[in-house]
Amino acid sequence: MSAVNRVFAAQLAGLPVFGPDGESIGKVRDVVAGLRLDQQPPRVLGLVVELATRRRVFVPMLRVTSIEPNAVTLATGSVNMRHFTQRPNEVLVCGQLLDAHSTLVGTDTRVTVVDAALEPTRTRDWVLAKLAIRERSTRLALGRRRAAMHVVPWSEVAGLGLTDLAGQPQGAGQLLMLFDTMRAVDVAATVRDLPLKRRHEVADAMDDERLADVIEELPDDDQKELLGYLPEERAADILEAMNPDDAADLLSELAPAEQRRLLELMEPEESAPVKRLLAYSPDTAGGLMTPEPVVLTPDATIAEALAHIRNADLPAALATMVFVCRPPSATPTGRFVGVVHFQRLLREPPAELIASAVDTDLAALPPTASLPEVTRYFAAYNLACGPVVDAEDHLLGAVTVDDVLDHLLPDGWRETGLRDVADGVETSGTSETAEPQGAERA
Length: 442
Prior knowledge:
Blueprint: E1 7-8, H1 9-12, E2 16-18, E3 24-34, E4 43-51, E5 56-60, E6 64-68, E7 71-74, E8 77-78, E9 90-92, H2 93-97, E10 101-104, E11 110-120, E12 126-135, E13 149-153, E14 157-158, H3 162-167, H4 173-179, H5 184-193, H6 196-205, H7 208-216, H8 220-229, H9 232-241, H10 244-252, H11 256-265, H12 268-278, H13 285-288, E15 295-296, H14 302-309, E16 321-325, E17 336-341, H15 342-347, H16 371-381, E18 385-389, E19 395-400, H17 401-408, H18 413-416, H19 419-422, E20 430-431
Helix pairs in contact: 5-7, 7-9, 9-11, 10-12, 16-17
């Protein structure tokens, strides 16, 4: 391994990982360390690396040949491709150790762990030699500056054993900072791998919008568990922040009494579209659709339409199509006129009315269309998004291709990731092995 004197765990998180020939392997998501009963620095066992298939695997530190400011490189050899599972004596440095509360040895000074430094030893092992800490002050004097951060040896900090981490309440500020640069689906994968206590602490610290995005990416059982943990009022707020179709899917998994209670706690204007979606079977166009596509009246201009689809919060699939309807524009709308494809919008003068660019020939889906019918529709018309229209020509919503894929994939696909694909991953530097998962962590 190239000479590196010290590297901090938070700096490692998110770094790309490359094989010996420069091929991309994935990204570092966490550092695994084995805690000890004494005060000696814990040994760093390896890295949790997320592959392109979103599966997270364990890479032993002996496989790491270099750690640079912008990348980690692996040596030639086999890496177990089974999904990473944390062992009882292990700690996830970013996921569990950061934000931990402890005290300085021999004092009553309370501190919070901000980061952990990995340092190599003469035997090629790596240890968590030092901790970046910040003093926790109980004084709330007006204008008091935030306590300075200090780097101290591991042995000078007490109360960081596994039982301590499992029993004490813990903040999540440092972990949320790491999440800032991650997509919601990647945050969801990280949260799912955390112990239940830590998962709840992270949920408590997240704002409603971010937590809603993360919950949408979790497997069904984890969605229900996390929603059940939250106070009812906040659970209703989270459902309001979710996309209506995702909120409806989650509510449909709950007991009828719990479902009714949460709908009652939601604001009427937020619960109304969710209730409409719950009226349809989840494997029909009505159950798959989102009731919030981009809807404009025929007298809107091309420039207005382009402004709507440029909205950064609009899902990519919904941005491929503008739906033209008579007033009212909220679903269910007035008479459905047709659609305008975004490529057509790019070719038209901005001052032109969208009525001049409407595609009136595209067939619409009825809300009762089955999943196979919806799938054939998307395949036949090569669409990323399609209208759902009732018998009276009212636009009810739009189905997107990602909604279709969600329901075509096997149950539990979010939990397993693309495991079947990952089973076939093999590179010149990293290949699958049949050894027991985590054998090199003994």
